[in-house]
Write a structure and sequence with these properties.
CATH architecture: 3-Layer(aba) Sandwich
Helix content: 25-40%
Number of helices: 6
Largest sheet: 8 strands, mixed
CATH class: Alpha Beta
Number of strands: 14
Strand order of the largest sheet: 2-1-3-4-14-13-12-9
Radius of gyration: 16 Å
Structural class: alpha/beta
CATH topology: Rossmann fold
Length: about 220
């Protein structure tokens, strides 16, 4: 049985993410055990890793760094051993080089770029960006996006967004007073600005794809 570790560092909708992953595993016939954990040893044994995050970039970075050995374990798994890793919301943002929320804060620097404030060109659009938006898939051939074409909608709640240095790392976007990044990825890493655990059919499809992905 495959093990998926959801990192518990005090920030994230962990129960919802775990239940969504369990449902996705059942629907795609994947024999998967989903573990919510703050233990690096559990992460070392997991085949796949999910890094969630809700709140401010700096707070999430501090929370993750406060778990002894966790950042090093994640780096070894994600970069050294190329295990599939999914970042959700601020978990995705943490993969950037730098966050600019309430001052500058270094990120994990796994996908070059920075996290900056949303500034919609249309002043009638509110920040935070909250609600459903249609995904514009930039990397249609990516396995984690299989089946998510035109008309797929996802649920967003955020005030900052990921600006990637390399456009090839942007897998999907949405239009919210301008083009903003909805999903990033490279190699064995993927991240969603939206919440797949709240995105109904599209979210379950993405999670099922992640569980079956072999980068």
């Amino acid at each position: 049985m495959s093990v998926v570790a959801i990192i518990d560092y005090g920030s994230g909708n962990l129960r919802s993410a775990a239940k969504a992953l369990e449902r996705a595993a059942a629907e795609c016939g994947s024999a998967t055990e989903v573990l919510v954990t703050a233990d690096p040893e559990v992460v070392r044994r997991a085949e796949r890793i999910v890094l969630p995050g809700v709140g401010a970039f700096a707070d999430c970075h501090r929370g993750l760094s406060a778990l002894p050995g966790m950042v090093e374990t994640l780096a070894a798994a994600a970069l050294g051993e190329a295990r599939p890793l999914l970042g959700i919301c601020v978990g995705m943002q943490l993969m950037a080089s730098l966050g600019r929320e309430y001052g500058e804060q270094p990120g994990l620097n796994w996908i070059p770029g920075e996290v900056v404030a949303l500034t919609p060109a249309d002043s009638s659009l509110k920040v935070p960006h909250m609600g459903w938006n249609e995904l514009q898939v930039a990397a249609a051939g990516h396995p984690v996006l299989r089946g998510l074409g035109a008309g797929s909608h996802a649920y967003f709640v955020h005030s900052y967004h990921f600006v990637a240095e390399d456009p090839r790392h942007v897998l999907a976007t949405v239009d919210y007073g301008g083009v903003i990044t909805a999903m990033v990825g490279r190699d064995n890493l993927v991240g969603t600005q939206f919440h797949p655990e709240k995105s109904q059919a599209a979210g379950l499809r993405l999670l099922a794809n992640f569980l079956q992905w072999r980068p």
